Amino acid sequence: MQYREDKNGEKLSILGYGCMRFTKKGNSIDIDKAEKEIMEAYNQGVNYYDTAYIYSGSEAALGEIVEKNNIRDKIKIATKLPQYLIGNGKGLDKYFNEELSRLKTDYVDYYLMHHLTDVAMWEKLKAVGILEWIEKKKKEGSIRNIGFSYHGNSENFITILEDYNWDFCQIQYNYMDEVTQAGVIGLKAAAKKGIPVVIMEPLRGGKLVNMLPEKAKKLIDNNERGWSAAEWAFRWLYNQPEVTVVLSGMNSIEMVKENCRVASDSGEGNLNESDLKLLEEIKRLIKEKEKVGCTGCRYCMPCPKGVDIPGIFACYNTMYIENKNSGRFQFAQTVGLTKEPAFATQCIECGKCETHCPQNIPIREKLKEADKALRPLPFKIGIGIARKYMLRKAKKEK
User: Fold this and answer.
1) Where is the 4Fe-4S ferredoxin-type domain (predicted)?
2) Quick one: residue 68, left, alpha or beta (phi over 0 = left, psi -120 to 50 = alpha)?
3) Is the pTM here over 0.90, yes or no?
4) Buried b (16+ CB within 10 A) or exposed e, 207-221
5) Residue 77 in 3-state DSSP?
6) Among residues 17, 22, 99, which one has the least CA distance to residue 54?
């Protein structure tokens, strides 16, 4: 494993473990499986583990695993203040103490203001006393480093970056988001101030692996490097010295081993001019096909009317990245035939989803487009008949 330093000279593994996507067993996290994966990563040298208050069951699972294996003082835990739930100063301690309890610890190594999208959110936190609160927690030692995770444009990112003496920050960044969100402008601005940058969505919600156009897949398969699509994406990030840690939501032993191998064999200067040209061509092919720039982060969820927004967009994109039948078949399986209906037509256009979307997608408009493409009349009738059959069968089996 390779390491890069934070502001205090602490060594952080360039691969970080994103704990949002632990495998579920029923409605709960499969703790035994998660433990095997966490400990495999730990034994391979991963020392940065990222979770958040709103990642259902994640903090508690991580806390249980870390305590059971007695590795708290050997790793760095990052979690996040749900700033969108804060109404007044009392909420700061309320949520933080709950997180400490879940994590079974008395300190957090890296604490983030979660999901800032503009300056107004940071100003709201300042108004309820966040600056004094941070100072107090750092003096107590219950917070070692303070940062923020960000989804928004580069201008607002830089304003927030300049407004406080941050210890680190976290941005969405990959070869498709080089000029969106904080982007390369934000990355370099943070690096110029000596602020470590943690990367989320390195594979853009899996899209840079699972939803590549066929032409892009062939380019990768035929390249003499022999690297997988995921490896190309990770190496592109590790090639940049401004990147400190790259998070990956690993949920299999195979994925952990592969990502650790790449992190041990990558670094600044690992890509040549020919490699970078290949990635530029892959970007061109993706943009040629894509219909909605959804990463599947699910910040738009839950929809008050039950619409599966990211699920619908994933199917819509599959129609054009792969083929129409693939997208419609995927829709039938993942959206159309679920027990609780999740169709775009259930949308009441309240707009709540759009206020939380990191990609600033006009969700209401795109849902109408997607529904029209995914459910032409024959498919709509077919799904309707299949749903009635399934519901009748379910009632009989009760």
Assistant:
1) 339-367
2) alpha
3) no
4) bbbebbbeebeebbe
5) strand
6) 99
Of 246, 242, 239, 235, residue with least CA distance to 202: 246
Helices (H) and strands (E) in the chain, counts: 17, 12
Strands 168-172 and 197-200: parallel
SS3 state at 8: coil
CATH architecture of the domain with residue range 3-286: Alpha-Beta Barrel (3.20)
The DSSP annotation for 198-218 comes to EEE-TTTTTHHHHT--HHHHH
* pLDDT mean for each 10 residues of the chain (398 residues): 96 97 92 98 98 96 98 98 92 97 98 90 94 98 97 87 98 88 93 97 88 91 97 98 97 97 94 96 86 84 91 87 82 77 92 90 96 90 78 49
The conformation of residue 123, written as its DSSP 8-state character, comes to: H
Residue 52 in tokens? 């958040």
130, 93 in Cβ contact below 8 A? no
Q: Which residue has the tokens 């004094």?
A: 132
Pair of tokens at residue 376: 């032409």
Cα dihedral sign for 82, 85, 86, 92?
Answer: negative
pLDDT at 379: 83
Q: Which amino acid, 338?
A: T
pLDDT in tens, 156-167: 899 999 999 999
Return the number of other C-beta atoms located less than 10 Å from residue 278's C-beta.
Answer: 18
Q: What is the widest separation between alpha-carbon atoms in the chain?
A: 66
Taking CA atoms, 261 is separated from 35, 36, 202, 361, in Å, by: 20, 17, 16, 35
Spatial contact of 204 and 174, defined as CB atoms under 8 Å apart: yes
Cis peptide leading into residue 82 (ω within 30°)? no
Q: In the chain, which residues fall in CATH 3.20.20.100?
A: 3-286
The helix or strand, by DSSP H or E, that contains position 62, with its residue range, turns out to be: helix 58-68
One-letter amino acid for residue 50 of the chain: D
Tell which residue, 332, 326, 317, has the closest CA to residue 370: 317
